[in-house]
Design brief:
474 residues; mainly alpha; Growth Hormone, Chain: A
């Protein structure tokens, strides 16, 4: 049996040109995986590898904490950067690709620049400055990649893509920590940064080489033009962007998804904050044992999520799989509550953490895929980032609840509290009706395109094409 044309991601089209991302599913999976892997390399070194190296060389907690905090700080700007990327772009090169190139180039050069800091152990200021810029460019790349995924991935490919993206980033983080520390100890800080920077530069070739849609420019000075599909969903003003966001976010399914994600994240944030304190202070683990255990679990759960979670969601559906994962999570923490007398047994407790975080990864991938499906392509970067901001706020709220809850409850009840938040999400997602939401978004798109036509911002052919394509796909 002859394989379909999309089997080989690098096969040329009939015109002799390489396929665009919108034309080739394997190419999309490869692209999103490598771009997320590129995010994981500097993140692993900045958040885990370099702080450990600093600690081994006598830096105090204030210096190390400041370094980590400054690297994370740009991620709080995502909600400001996303509208900028929805509003402005160079359509002739694609709606998201110019921003991906901007973020990836900045990420590569700022990361490489860190290698040339003279005496980095005694130049914390420059380490912090470059850490900030690495985080800043990573934010632009992350938002643009998510926006591109929503723009060009069919709904039935979003779950698998999210699994690959999540797993690739996890592998990047784990690889940079494990290999990075080895290179630093065997050679130097300079060699470790240069080694991983080369990978980030090589990955830059993927968005540089492949187009979003057929007929677009590869570079500003090459031949090509804006796609009619991209032009039809491009936001024309700040007013349109923010009013569109309000219109789509107040739809019932959008609100339910936001509340469900917030509740789930509260429970996750509570357990994330509890585990290092409980394992070290109550179980007598060393911080090294906890870090190593958590790193291995994170890697294994990420790989499982990469190859298994997306496939399950594709086959059984988002709501059904989220429900199954949540039921399993609730059953797991309830079982852990009744087995609390065996928590000092490493096999029992490590088994609990491993199963818990594997199910967390699977649920998170399903949440991300659901959020992508709910996004209006016209403002996809902003809307998806808003869901992520709600999730991050929930995690922060959960971590903040640890102190008050622990002040009047024992540790086993802190674990059991997760079941309350997961149970609330389980109830909420039963009211997620994606088909109804898709129809309502289609109506919003039709109304907005008619306004654009009336204002002379689009030609009629540019208006009709995106909506007709969407209806046909459905």
């Amino acid at each position: 049996m002859k394989k379909p044309d999309t089997y080989n991601p690098f096969k040329r089209t009939a015109e002799g040109k390489f396929p665009s991302l919108s034309q080739n599913a394997p190419l999309r999976y490869v692209t999103f995986s490598f771009l997320y892997f590129a995010q994981g390399l500097p993140e692993g070194l900045l958040r885990f590898g370099i702080p450990a190296w600093l600690a081994m060389n006598g830096k105090n907690a204030i210096e190390i904490g400041s370094f980590v905090a400054i690297g994370i700080l740009p991620w709080s700007f995502k909600i400001l950067a996303a509208p900028l990327m929805d509003r402005f772009t160079f359509l002739a090169m694609g709606r998201r690709r110019p921003w991906i190139l901007f973020g990836q180039v900045g990420l590569a050069f700022s990361f490489l620049s860190m290698a040339f800091i003279a005496d980095p152990l005694n130049n914390m200021f420059m380490l912090q400055v470059l850490s900030f810029f690495i985080g800043l460019f990573a934010v632009f790349q992350d938002i643009a990649v998510d926006g591109l995924a929503i723009d060009i991935l069919p709904e039935d490919q979003q779950a698998r893509a999210n699994g690959l993206m999540w797993g690739s980033k996890t592998i990047g983080i784990s690889a940079s920590v494990a290999i990075g520390i080895s290179i630093i100890n065997a050679y130097s800080f300079f060699h470790a940064i240069v080694f991983f920077s080369l990978f980030v530069f090589l990955i830059l070739l993927i968005p540089l080489f492949f187009r979003e849609r057929a007929g677009e420019k590869r570079l500003p000075w090459t031949n090509g033009k804006a796609s009619e599909v991209a032009a039809g969903i491009q936001v024309q003003s700040w007013k349109e962007l923010f009013f569109s966001l309000v219109k789509v976010f107040i739809l019932p399914v959008s609100l339910i998804m936001g509340v469900a994600a917030f509740s789930f994240s509260i429970g996750r944030g509570l357990i994330d904050a509890m585990l290092p304190v409980f394992t070290v202070q109550e179980l007598g683990w060393t911080d090294g044992k906890y870090s190593q255990t958590f790193a291995v679990i994170k890697l294994v759960s990420g790989i499982l999520g990469m190859f298994v979670a997306g496939a399950f969601i594709d086959f059984f559906g988002k709501v059904r799989m989220m429900s199954i994962y949540l039921i399993l999570l609730i059953s797991l923490v309830v079982s852990a509550f009744f087995l609390r007398d065996y928590w000092d047994n490493p096999v029992v407790f490590i088994g609990f953490i491993g199963l818990f975080y594997t199910l967390i990864v699977f649920t998170t991938i399903a949440v991300f895929a659901s959020a992508m499906q709910l996004c209006w392509k016209r403002i996809s970067a902003t809307q998806f980032t808003l869901y992520m901001a709600i999730s991050n706020l929930g995690m922060a709220s959960g971590a903040a609840l640890l102190g008050p809850i622990k002040s009047f409850l024992a540790w086993e009840y802190v674990v059991l509290a997760f079941a309350v938040f997961a149970g609330f999400m389980l109830i909420a997602i039963q009211f997620l009706h994606f088909d109804k939401h898709t129809k309502r978004v289609a109506v919003l798109e039709l109304y907005q395109t008619r306004l654009d036509e009336t204002a002379g911002k689009l030609k009629p052919v540019e208006l009709v094409a995106p909506l007709e394509k969407k209806q046909t796909h459905k």
